[in-house]
Amino acid sequence: MDFVKKLKETLGSVLPIMVIVLVLNFTIAPLGDLFWPFILGGVLLIVGLSLFLAGTDIGMVPVGEKLGSVLTRKRNIWFMLAIGFIIGFAVTLAEPDVNVLASQVNSLNSSIPKMTLVVMIALGLGVFVDIGLLRTVARFPLKWVLIIFYSIVFVLVCIIGQSMASISFDASGATTGPLAVPFLLALGLGVSGSTKDDQDSSFGLTGVASIGPILAVALMVMVSKSGSAAGAVSEAVEDETFWDCFLGTLKNTAIGFGPLLAIILVMQFTMLHFPKIKFRNICLGIIYSFVGIVIFLTGVEYGFSAVGWYLGQTISKNFSPVLVVGLALLFGGIVVLAEPAVWVLTSQVEDVTAGRIKRSLVMIFICLGVAIAVALALLRILLHINYLWFVLIGVGSALIMTLVTPPLFTGIAFDSGGVASGPMSTTFLLSFALGVSGSADMGFGLVGLIAMSPLIAIQILGIIFRFKERSGKKEVRNAGTAQ
Amino acid sequence: MLVLHNNLMIAVVNNGQAERFMSIAKEAGAGGGTIIPAKGTASNRILRLLALGDKSKEVVLIVIDHEKGKKIVDAVRSDGKIQGVAAMLGSTKEKTMSSKWKMITIIVNTGYADDIMDAARKAGAHGGTITHARGTGTEEDAKFLGVQIVPEKEMIFILCAADDCDKIVEAVSSLKCLDEPGIGIIYTQDVVDFKNLDPQK
């Protein structure tokens, strides 16, 4: 059964981080009271992630693909854009992370009202889902869409300055929650799969969509008067009981997921029309994903968040910065293995290419990228480097690379950006960074950097692939029939 | 274009074992093959009810004559590390033996496989393998923003005893949700040889 296989795989992806933390526990940073919550958190992570992944395969993914295919088949561009916009808008509006981000912005610049910003981000995502859909259907090269819009982003972030720039990049990571990402990925697959083409346009929808929030935040900051900072954000680690934690995540996930579920149900009876047993299985799948992600997030919040903060603080206080950066490198590479959406994306890559691009290969490159990103983010905190350099060099080189990378890989790379910055990085890694920096201000930008790193890492993989295939290595596999 | 007048060997193996199968097959005389990612449906009833029964599989297609095909199956069985089944389709030289097995293939618009497998199982099928494909045909002229739209299809392979074949075909083709022109086709083929690749079974 695949569920058992998934359990084994997730065990392999959560255990490494647990082992490292336990080694630290018995050597330089004893966890004390945090020890048992951490162990429990790890178990919840493994169970939750497996359930989530098993559910996504039979629930969210088929719905997204079918919707994409039905939208294309209607051959009505306005209808398609309307539905795409509604989905993007509704999903973002309800995402708890976006609200958290909006209050952070509000605390730095009081002239930006929280609710307005949330609506702007949601509008941004909705519009860019449409742009992504349009370019997928019309076969407009992804690289030009990216180059055009990221150039605009460049200009804007240079104007608004580094602290706001880092927040706007974080926005792209915050908007797409773990339940919405698989749906968006599948939607892109469905649209591209129902048109006659190779796999080049299968990916990229999520990547294009995540430009929206960056632009929205940057624009809002631009047009608003620079208000006074309302004081530093207190990212205090609260003493939550297990039940508080569980109920909190249950509530947040339900609010975030509600609109998407409502849309799916309406669609089933108006345009999807899944047959009886398929629909039953899809409902079960969605329930599994929901329960799984609640278990997963509870584990992260309850067990991992506090540990990250504690480790960052203890180690940066008592040991050399070299060790801190080294640990960041290690954490970054290993933690991303447990990101739910990364698993969904990599398995879709394997499916679409009929096994030509192995999931493990994509995984390794995402890990390497995130590892370097987290280490750089910590270096930035320790050395006070201007964030804009990271944006300019990071995104700049990613854009230049799109010119030589095979289109399929460009799509995968920019989609990976959105998926790599999931709940694990926004809690565990962010807490670690905050623990090191001691102030919330410098912790901003970490999520954005994590989201940026796969853009480069996966495109490097693409360029390597291109040279390998050009050297004429014949493969036994005749990849062809899938999708 | 290489023209071969042989049988088609179709093997369904667990995910990740197709490469190993191919390398054994090549040593035993196969020229080459095609690997298709697929989904197997489980026979366990409880897992099916929970919608957790599907398992990733790989389908291997090799065009080869019957005798060599037997050698391949024997070689894979003696290797003992591959779980799956292999069936040989097409005609035999000894025309006398009537085949005890049939393969039913259903090509249908995406999304119906679960319901089809459910009906097939009630009519006596033990399991099936599902792959994704693309159709051409009725919608061939449909264009959207200058790009051709092609129907997405699912191909379902069901190996069954020849006695059950008609019942299964009847059950699937009379499904209500398939009551729509152009939704798909169903056909059967003779299986001349059928073996489990796991030597213990």
Tell me the layout of helices and strands.
The complex is a heterodimer of chains A (483) and B (201).
Chain A: H1 2-26, H2 35-58, H3 60-74, H4 77-94, H5 96-108, H6 114-138, H7 142-160, H8 162-175, H9 180-193, H10 205-209, H11 211-223, H12 242-272, H13 276-318, H14 321-335, H15 340-352, H16 359-383, H17 387-402, H18 407-420, H19 423-437, H20 440-443, H21 446-470
Helix pairs in contact in A: 1-2, 2-13, 3-9, 3-12, 4-6, 4-12, 5-6, 5-8, 6-11, 7-8, 7-11, 7-17, 8-11, 8-21, 9-15, 12-13, 13-19, 14-16, 14-19, 15-16, 15-18, 16-19, 16-21, 17-21, 18-21
Chain B: E1 7-14, H1 18-27, E2 34-40, H2 45-49, E3 55-64, H3 66-79, E4 84-89, E5 101-109, H4 113-122, E6 129-134, E7 143-144, E8 147-148, E9 152-161, H5 162-173, E10 184-196
Antiparallel strand pairs in B: 1-3, 1-4, 2-3, 2-6, 4-10, 5-9, 5-10, 6-9, 7-8
Helix pairs in contact in B: 1-3, 4-5
